[in-house]
Amino acid sequence: MNDLSVAQRLAPATIPVLRERGQRQVFCGLTSIVWLHRKLQDAFFLVVGSRTCAHLLQSAAGVMIFAEPRFGTAILTDRDLAGIADANDELDRVALELLARRPDIRALFLVGSCPSEVIKLDLPKAAERLNARLLPQVRVIAFSGSGIETTFTQGEDKALTALVPLLPATTDKQLLIVGSLAEVVEDQLSRLLRQMGIENFAFLPPRRATELPAVGPNTLLLPAQPYNGEAVRALLARGATLLEAPYPLGVEGTTAWLAAAADAFAVPRERFAQTIAAPAERARAALARYRDKLAGLSLFLLPDSQLEIPLARFLHRELGMRLAEVGTPYLDRQMVKAELDLLPAGTPLSEGQHLERQLDRLRAARPDLTSCGLGLANPLEAEGYTTKWSIETVFTPIQGFDQAADLAELFARPLARRARLAV
Fold first, then answer.
1. 400: Cβ–Cβ under 8 A, 6 or more apart, which residues?
2. Which strands make up the sheet holding 387-389, listed edge to edge?
3. Which of 388, 350, 40 is nearest to 396 (CA)?
4. If DSSP codes are grouped into helix, strand and coil, which group holds residue 204?
5. Average pLDDT for residues 122-150, to the nearest whole number?
6. Of 75, 89, 162, 202, which shows the fewest CB atoms inside 10 Å?
7. Element at 253 (helix H, strand E)
8. What residues pair up with 3 in beta bridges, in sequence order?
9. What are phi and psi of 259, to 5 degrees?
């Protein structure tokens, strides 16, 4: 075992969890398309939903009227919802017109929404029907991005889970990194893995939907995002093995994450240490100036993205922030066990949301900084609280050594803004 595997050499912390069920404030899973369409460069995401779905995606992605993104909405009209028109025929027509206009598309994702699920439109059946006409030129895949029961990052989990049955089989020993990463982060982590001597690795999702990685009994899974639990369990069902590690946030998290891969491939300790020495030292130096700004300040994380627990670990252990409460929409212990082991004992931890009760606890705690969704930020700012938009941590490259300071700045920036406004 590599002695830098931090999560494996610390005793688990016993942290009670407050489970809440009630009013929630969160984006729906359709939001995940905003980063997935950038990642999968030969895919198109066709949402089957309402005009509200279209407005959400366009505003979240900042798409201008003359842009041609790789996503769109097949809008369900009153005729579709009332059953006057055959929604299946209309969907086939829209899909075929889209593919005729965009011949570069090799994978078409049909994305379910609240409206399509309410009228029981069977998108998996529609994908099967379209595949009979379009394969092998285009593959059609269906998943749900409905916001009825999910938080917004789980849209990615649904998409990756839909891809798992399509992955080819292999018996080769390989590392499979699960979860969308910005290309710059993927390139940096790939370079470090190769410098350690690990050559057989792949990413899910890949950059092209036509280049899906393989999976089998000798595949080792290393999640890069904590919200892909369903996809990980689908991969485990195909024989893969899960490596337990914190997520690559900050110096400590990135070191432990890479160490899990190094241990699994028997990388010599000296080679591992040499590989990470320079980037880790740069990251520690870059973090020092943010620690001076954040150490000792209290932080309240409202549930939004499922990144809250890894973020809390990073902000507490590397930047010295005090954790007033760490809320997460869904606590998947299989995916965050190593992170929980690194939180200080006694950390107030909540799962789910009862918005009014949580706001009462926030007002009682009077934190220096609150991480929350966009819908809560302005009302809390009006009450005098300093807020950090949690969605920024999903859209911004934050993983790896070279992004550690960028992640710290995301939390220091609102405090600097508040200080400027107070002058």
1. 185, 188, 189, 248, 254
2. 17-21, 349-353, 322-328, 298-301, 369-372, 387-389
3. 388
4. strand
5. 92
6. 89
7. helix 250-264
8. none
9. -65, -35
Please report which helix (H) or strand (E) contains residue 72, including its range: strand 71-75
Both tokens of 383, joined, read 């009450």
Q: Between the ranges 72-86, 307-321, 407-421, where is the mean pLDDT highest?
A: 307-321
- What one-character DSSP code corresponds to residue 75? E
Contact, 392 vs 410, CB < 8 A?
yes
- 8 Å CB contact between 388 and 411: yes
Q: Is the pLDDT of residue 257 over 50?
A: yes
- The span from the CA of 219 to the CA of 35, in Å, is 26
Tens-place pLDDT, residues 401-412: 999 999 999 999
- Helix then strand then coil, in percent of the chain rounded to 5, is 50, 15, 35
Distance CA 113, CA 284 (A): 43
* d(C-alpha 6, C-alpha 317), whole Å: 12
pTM score: 0.92
**What pLDDT, in 10s, does the model give residues 353-408?**
899 999 999 999 999 999 998 889 999 999 999 999 999 999 999 999 999 999 99
The pLDDT tens digits for 185-211 are: 999 999 999 999 999 999 999 999 999
In sequence order, which ranges of 2-104 are alpha helices (DSSP H)? 6-9, 33-39, 51-61, 78-82, 87-101
State both tokens at 117: 């699920």
